[in-house]
Design brief:
The chain is built from 17 helices and 20 strands. It is of the alpha/beta class. The strands form 5 sheets. Strands 4-3-13-12-9-10 form a 6-stranded antiparallel beta sheet.
Length: 466
């Protein structure tokens, strides 16, 4: 459609395959860790859930873990007793690494997300040719093989976690886990428990024991993100853990030895925090054995074009000189993260290999609305008939023993998904919101499924009976 010079093409871009992502779910509802790569995991008392928890305070359908191709989120299903994360009740929560949720009154569910491809190639994220990026690469290569504690300093959005993971992957601890602990995201009353663990009965709701971040990282690396947010009264315990390499769980009587490498990160000037009495000077000395500075985007303006083209290329798109010029003329207070989000959103909105300057300023809500209401255009790709062949797809035909069981099963699942989606969209009058309501599947995940099967919603709308 065209509206005041703004052109929006149909969403038909076929994205490249994302890195392999595995989500592990550990709960009282299954004796072994449940591993998922894509789809929705439902948790609750009902026997139809993937994880069944027999507890009177857990709802029949309590929680969904939605594993999208490009992210993971959990959603409470409007339950009576709720789902809590770090002491706060949640409705939806994105999960990038680890999260421990409490369902009902005291049922703990731990979720761990690993991104195999990303963990193997972190230095590929250091895109750019500026002197500051070259210096950053050199610092990572120099520090990674050592056992030194590292303090990473830099503004929000400059890639401090990327640097931490790159150091870990190039260290002698690469075969062991890297555990991310965000000091700013944890309730102050729970930080000690989340860091050092707790024993059963240590506090109300502690129906079992917990290892804590230090012990989960044993043999590997503990990344303390936003260390400047750590409350002053908890800093002595952290200092002792760093110096003695042992921790005492909340409610415990004995110290437990731990073998971890510490990498910390902050967007605050910790010397200023020390002068203000908000951060201990001895803890700063213990953390800043060696320091790495992540550069802001405004200090490496020459990398904006390189980064933008890199992000677009990863989605199979290109950027015109006009778009590049528009990107280079911006301030980017959110740094590389903001640039990446802007480029990815514009590419998705474009629906094809070319991106318009006007598409750089469309925010997420606008994008959602445009996707719902876009008119079909002649440039729509991958047109698919809106009707299902009589008789549907034959399971017997798909169940070929010439394929390994898992491959044959996946083929059948893919065929079912595609047939279901086509029929669902037709019966929902080609409206995505109505399709989500009918199917009980979240809009965002439903949209990802359509993309997975190269189903062009605009073309289907255009081919519907008049």
């Amino acid at each position: 459609m065209t509206d005041d010079g703004k052109t929006v093409t149909a969403l038909a871009l076929k994205l490249k395959a994302p890195p392999t992502r595995t989500v592990e779910v550990q709960s009282p509802g299954n004796p072994q860790v449940l591993k998922v790569r894509e789809g929705v995991v439902r948790i609750g008392r009902d026997a139809n859930n993937e994880v069944v928890i027999d507890d009177p305070f857990v709802s029949r359908n309590h929680l969904e873990i939605r594993v999208f191709p490009h992210g993971v989120e959990v959603a409470d299903l409007d339950t009576k007793n709720g789902t809590h994360f770090q002491g706060a009740r949640i409705r939806e929560l994105p999960v990038s690494s680890e999260a421990t949720l409490v369902l009902g009154k005291n049922i703990s569910v731990r979720i761990r997300v690993t991104d195999e491809t990303r963990e193997k190639s972190e230095l590929d994220e250091f895109v750019g040719a500026s002197p500051s990026v070259q210096k950053l690469r050199a610092a990572v290569q120099r520090v990674a093989p050592t056992t030194l504690t590292v303090l990473i300093e830099g503004e929000t959005g400059t890639g401090k976690e990327v640097v931490a993971r790159a150091i870990h992957q190039r260290s002698q601890r690469a075969a062991k886990p890297i555990v991310v602990f965000d000091c700013a995201a944890v309730s102050p009353t729970l930080i000690a428990s989340e860091l050092f663990g707790h024993t059963k009965g240590a506090y109300t709701g502690a129906t079992g024991s917990s290892e804590g971040a230090f012990r989960r990282a044993h043999g590997g690396t503990l990344f303390l993100d936003e260390i400047g947010e750590l409350p002053l009264d908890l800093q002595p315990a952290l200092l002792r853990a760093l110096e003695a390499r042992q921790v005492k769980p909340v409610g415990g009587e004995a110290y437990v030895p731990v073998d971890v490498r510490i990498i910390a990160a902050t967007n605050r000037a910790l010397e200023t925090e020390v002068e203000a009495g908000r951060f201990r000077k001895d803890l700063l000395f213990r953390l800043a054995v060696t320091r790495i500075k992540t550069p802001s985007l405004r200090s490496r303006v020459e990398d904006i074009a390189i980064l933008a083209k890199h992000f677009a290329a990863s989605l199979g798109a290109t950027l015109s000189p006009q778009v590049i010029a528009a990107l280079e003329g911006r301030e980017w207070p959110g740094n590389v993260r903001e640039l990446r989000n802007t480029v990815e959103r514009a590419v998705m909105l474009a629906g094809g290999p070319g991106v318009l300057v006007t598409q750089l300023d469309v925010d997420e809500d606008e994008f959602d609305e445009l996707e719902e209401n876009d008119e079909p255009t002649s440039t729509a790709m991958n047109a698919i008939p809106a009707t299902i062949p009589p008789g549907g797809l034959s399971v017997a035909a798909l169940a070929s023993t010439e394929l390994p069981f898992q491959d044959a099963k996946q083929l059948a699942v893919d065929a079912f998904e595609k047939e279901y989606l086509l029929k669902l969209f037709s019966e929902s009058n080609y409206n995505l919101s109505e399709a989500a309501r009918r199917s009980g599947v979240h809009r965002r995940y439903l949209r990802e499924l359509y993309k997975k099967h190269s189903i062009d919603l605009a073309s289907l709308r255009a081919s519907r009976p008049k």
